[in-house]
Amino acid sequence: MHLWQLIFYVSCGLVFYNYAGYAVIVFLLNKITGNRQEAKDDPGFRPSVAFIVAAYNEEDVIKQKIVNSLEQDYPRDKIEFIFITDGSSDNTPLLITQSPGIRLLHRPERSGKSAALNRAVAEATQDIIIASDANTLLNKDAVKNIVRHYRSAETGGVAGEKKVLSANTGAEDVGAGEGLYWKYESALKKLDADFYSVVGAAGELFSLRRTLYEPLPHDVILDDFVLSLRVAQKGYRIRYEPDAYAMELPSFSMKDEQKRKVRIAAGGFQAIGMLTPLLAFWKYPRLTFLYVSHRLLRWTLSPLCLILALLANAALLPAGTLYVVLFAAQAGFYGISLLARLFPTIRNRIKLAKLAYYFTFMNLSVILGFFRFLRGRQSATWEKAHRTPQPAPGD
């Protein structure tokens, strides 16, 4: 009985710590120490920028991306737009060549996004690299708001904000759960950045000093995550800029969203193997603390602990009313998740069902991603998730 109690309480404790406990600790430490990232805009500080977009068969959205990119409020003589379309077999390269102000890099062979970024950065000569996905639209001040952080020599990179828009199509409300998740992630990024550094930028919008960019192996899946943490490993900080945001529509269906999440999870396990030096707590005390608390547990122990907590709770049912109540709470939570899976209307209308479903969905995707990683079946070249149609560009 004591063993089951140990398993139960340790599992519950780790899950709570990963999703909320560490954030409370960081919040309190920031309050005590007064940690707060600040970066004011200086009109006289306008370093040169290479704005890179890696696009694969994006003919449906590339015109909007081009218009949106050229609308950035930044001196045109200080920014170069580089679009790389290696492997694209549709009209994406042609549409880019028809757009003045955009430099196109294209090869017929497809090697994946990491290879494309390596080639694009090698062609760039600017001080700052800003990378953005082809299927996202940025606010007009995004580049300016990112660049202001580089006035500090401690800044090695900047993570922008990701906003998931509502599709309003009457189809599955995928964006509702994903949007809630990213609001939660944004709050954690703010805490992490104030404490020390963001632990992993999102590929929709991230930036690095060009001199700190390390070419990645072509099989890397989470290029943005690995690049940003390698910069942090060198002693630089990855700042967070909520006023530079990438707007993206959700996946068309939960099936498409699951493919994306499983791929990300498989890439997460690959990244853990590449970033083992970050486990040296004595070298990177604050960075290691954030990396383990925010990322490593999310991809490793937390999904396992959810299973162990349920099994241990079932074994403890004869031990008293407390465990009966706790088991009923767990069973009810997963029961709501199952109902939300079977009946999308429930998760679209009831917030608790939406939260329960997306939480369960994410952790299941991590487990599936782990087995995909073990099988070595995840390629660096990706199968695009089907997304809802992009709205007209605008702020």
Give a topology summary:
Blueprint: H1 2-33, E1 49-54, H2 62-70, E2 79-84, H3 92-97, E3 102-105, H4 113-123, E4 128-133, E5 137-138, H5 142-147, E6 155-164, H6 174-195, E7 205-209, H7 223-233, E8 237-248, H8 254-274, H9 285-299, H10 301-315, H11 321-342, H12 344-349, H13 351-375
Parallel strand pairs: 1-2, 1-4, 2-3, 6-8
Antiparallel strand pairs: 4-7, 5-8, 6-7
Helix pairs in contact: 1-6, 1-9, 1-10, 6-13, 8-13, 11-13
Protein architecture, described:
The chain contains 13 helices and 8 strands. The protein starts with a helix and ends in a 20-residue tail after the last helix. The chain has a single domain (about 1-395), classed as Spore Coat Polysaccharide Biosynthesis Protein SpsA, Chain A. The model is unreliable at about 390-395 (pLDDT under 50). It is about 50% helix and about 15% strand. The protein has an 8-stranded mixed sheet, sandwiched between helices. The chain has about 400 residues and is an alpha/beta fold. The relative contact order is 0.14.
